[in-house]
Amino acid sequence: MKTIDIGGKERPFRFSLYAIQAYCEMKNISFTEFASKANQIITGKDIDGLIDVLYAGLMGGAHREKIPCDFTREQVGDWVDDAGFQAIPVIIKAFTESIMDKKKETVNPKAKK
């Protein structure tokens, strides 16, 4: 499982079916609509969706690790703002790799590419 250094600590990030379900509920979309939304997020066309993906992935990581979600969607949005614009491609990469690759890796949105 990947981890993301955000919100003052390293947090597990897992974009699994649990996270997809949470994302679909937040956005009030079907599972089949998720693929289109995911493409918009990956290509940088849906920043609001990016925050929801990060939030859902952090929820998925917490769920997998059986730890409480000690954050809200609004806090996650603030963390992205605090990390700066360089966090966006790092989060997109974590999202993409979380779906395709299950290796453990730490991702730091404050790190420069």
Structure description:
With 113 residues, the protein is mainly α. It has one domain (2-104). Helix content is 59%, strand content 12%. The protein has helices spanning 17-27, 31-42, 47-65, 73-83, 87-100, and strands spanning 2-6, 9-13, 105-107. It has a three-stranded mixed beta sheet with strand order 2-1-3. α1 (17-27) packs across α3 and α2 (31-42) crosses α3. The radius of gyration is 13 Å and the shape is globular.
What are its keywords?
single chain; 113 residues; mainly alpha; 3-stranded mixed beta sheet; 5 helices
Helix/strand order, N-terminal first: EEHHHHHE
Number of helices: 5
Secondary structure: helix percent? 55-70%
Structural class based on helices, strands and sheet pairing: mainly alpha
Low-confidence stretches: none
> How far is the N terminus from the C terminus?
21 Å
Domain count, please report it. Answer: 1
Query: What is the number of beta strands?
Result: 3
Mean pLDDT across all amino acids: 86
In the sheet with the most strands, the strands line up as: 2-1-3
Q: What amount of the residues lies in strands?
A: 5-15%
Biggest pleated-sheet summary: 3 strands, mixed
